[in-house]
């Protein structure tokens, strides 16, 4: 939007080498995803939108406002062991759900699927709690990363965009906790890492 364009002239925006998904593009796609969820879940209730902290917060906020159904919202915070930008597959639950999900239609809302290990673990964990169903809504999917691997098809029912194999920031995605507040998604300049 014009408002964002004005806010994000210069400043922190200069840390990006390239914008991959602009605010308008993200907005339009998230609205479409919300429409699809509204359609698919019309006869299913109760519906729980489960945001995975922290990366999903802008996506969940926008997506939930595009779903015209009586959903509830809850959060989990997970962290995969090991530092850096690679997932280890061992996932630790830092904050669990506030309420039981038994009998609920759960939609996991996640910022990005990379190796797929985090969501694979989460989905299995949630399935053990007797929900009515579990589906995944991910804004980005680094599909090419998983080519030929065990988790190649994560079976995410709702995916916003295919993401190139680059470390991306913005719209919830961070580097060392920063850049989550950008309304667009892009790639950092290499200098920023060092
Ligand atoms: P896996 O590999 O388990 O990873 O699918 C999912 C989690 O890793 C983080 N991740 C990223 N974070 N830019 C980020 O800011 C990226 O390009 C990126 N790729 C993976 C993210 O937290 C996600 O939940
Ligand atoms: Mg992160």
Please characterize this protein's 3D structure.
The chain is of the alpha/beta class. The protein contains five helices and nine strands; from the N terminus they run αβαβαβββαββββα. It has helices spanning 2-7, 23-40, 57-64, 117-127, 190-193, and strands at 16-21, 47-53, 72-80, 91-95, 105-113, 133-141, 158-162, 168-169, 185-188. It has a six-stranded mixed sheet, with helices on both faces. The structure holds xanthosine-5'-monophosphate and magnesium ion (MG). Xanthosine-5'-monophosphate (XMP) binds at residues 55, 80, 87, 110-118, 167-169, 173-174.
What topology, given as strand order, has the largest sheet? 4-3-2-5-6-7
Ligand identities: xanthosine-5'-monophosphate, magnesium ion
Overall tally of domains: 1
The unreliable regions are none
**Overall SS class:** alpha/beta
Mean pLDDT: 94
The CATH architecture category equals: 3-Layer(aba) Sandwich
Give the ordered list of helices and strands. HEHEHEEEHEEEEH
Cα separation of the termini: 32 Å
* Apparent shape: globular
Which percent band covers the strand fraction?
A: 25-35%
Brief write-up:
This protein has one domain (24-161): 3-Layer(aba) Sandwich (Rossmann fold). Helix content is 24%, strand content 29%. It has five helices and nine strands, in the order H-E-H-E-H-E-E-E-H-E-E-E-E-H.
Sequence-ordered SSE layout with sheet pairings:
Layout: H1 2-7, E1 16-21, H2 23-40, E2 47-53, H3 57-64, E3 72-80, E4 91-95, E5 105-113, H4 117-127, E6 133-141, E7 158-162, E8 168-169, E9 185-188, H5 190-193
Parallel strand pairs: 2-3, 2-5, 5-6, 6-7
Antiparallel strand pairs: 1-9, 3-4, 8-9
The structure holds xanthosine-5'-monophosphate and magnesium ion.
């Amino acid at each position: 939007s014009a408002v964002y364009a004005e806010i994000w002239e210069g400043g922190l925006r200069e840390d990006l080498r390239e914008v991959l998904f602009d605010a308008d593009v993200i907005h339009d796609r998230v609205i479409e995803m919300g429409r699809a969820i509204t359609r698919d879940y019309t006869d299913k209730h109760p519906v729980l939108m489960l945001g995975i902290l922290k990366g999903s917060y802008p996506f969940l906020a926008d997506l939930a406002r595009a779903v015209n159904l009586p959903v509830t919202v809850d959060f989990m915070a997970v962290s995969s062991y090991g530092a850096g930008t690679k997932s280890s597959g061992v996932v630790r639950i830092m904050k669990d759900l506030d309420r039981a999900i038994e009998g609920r239609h759960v939609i996991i809302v996640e910022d990005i699927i990379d190796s797929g290990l985090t969501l694979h673990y989460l989905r299995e964990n949630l399935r053990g709690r007797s929900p009515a169903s579990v589906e995944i809504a991910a804004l980005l999917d680094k599909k090419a990363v998983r080519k030929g691997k065990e988790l190649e098809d994560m079976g995410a029912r709702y995916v916003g965009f295919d993401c190139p194999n680059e470390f991306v920031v913005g719209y919830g995605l961070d580097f060392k906790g920063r850049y989550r507040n950008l309304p667009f998604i892009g790639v950092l300049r290499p200098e920023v890492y060092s």
